[in-house]
Amino acid sequence: MNVRRRHISAVALTAVTALGLGTLTACSSDSAAAGNTDRFDVVASFYPMAFLAERIGGEHVHITSLTQPGQEPHDLEISARQMGELEEADAALYLKGLQPAVDKAVGLAEGPTKIDAAELTTLETHGTEAGGHEDEHGDEHAHEDEHGDEHAHEDEHAHEDEHDHDHDHEGADPHVWLDPVKYAEVAEGVGKAFQKADPDHAADYRANTAALVKDLKALDGRFRTGLANRTSDVFVTTHAAFGYLAERYGLTEEAISGLDPESEPSGARMKELQEIAKADGVTTVFYETLVSDRTAKTLAADVGLKTDVLDPVEGITDHSRGEDYLQVMDANLTALRTALGAR
Fold this sequence. Notes:
Elements: H1 10-19, E1 40-44, H2 47-57, E2 61-65, H3 80-88, E3 91-94, H4 100-108, E4 113-116, E5 129-131, E6 143-144, E7 150-151, H5 180-197, H6 202-226, E8 234-239, H7 243-248, E9 252-257, H8 267-279, E10 284-287, H9 294-303, E11 306-309, H10 325-339
Parallel strand pairs: 1-2, 1-3, 3-4, 8-9, 8-10, 10-11
Antiparallel strand pairs: 5-9, 6-7
């Protein structure tokens, strides 16, 4: 759709130099790369953003994902070709704070409308322990983290407007898509951004957004009902991706490592988790398919626990328990119900 530039701009060339990407070559005119189609061209940073673009954009969008299926998104490096695709796109849809290379590349790209999902909901800070409990109305209470600090959590309907709240998200947990309510907030913001950037198809974007939000609200309902009667609140994961999900449904996530899935846990943390598992009736240590399961299996073996997959839905592969976000999240619900003794 983008007809403003047929050649990569000087800004893209500067970006390539700044990112150390080497020689940039323009995409061929007959390719399906961003900027070379008659549709609204969206470059998405990784799968959860591509899923939003696909559901909201429908037939009107052409999507290019910077992160390939099976690729660990946190460690993504941007290629020269991808920098060119960003420069030529109509929109760049990304989640600031998750992929540093993407954040830098999007900041340098001159061409696209930039849609930062982190600006469309409220981010929080989570460590290796995260969780919260809700009362019968669903309001989240303040809780103490492992250091004794209190964090006040907002009601799901009381987040600030995207233009008014603090945009400094450094150090915040970016895994908002694992909370269906927050993901729905992001979807609504993406829908509005598409409507503004491509007004000719605004009505379809509006309808598609409403349908997606309805599906996400139904998913939230399945989690609330499915986890209502359980024997334990605590679950253990390899890295702290599920803090928002834990808070939404009154659970406590205990992660072997922090937000970085590749970080190595300390001996003290492993010992602490062994004690937590025994004290809280933990039955399962969860791991994910895109990173090593070694530490999860080590901890499970030390305490005599089972292992299972809890998928952070950062990409869909042949090993995924479903073909899209909604199916994989339903599989996650099944796994959590089993681990937490839900009836």
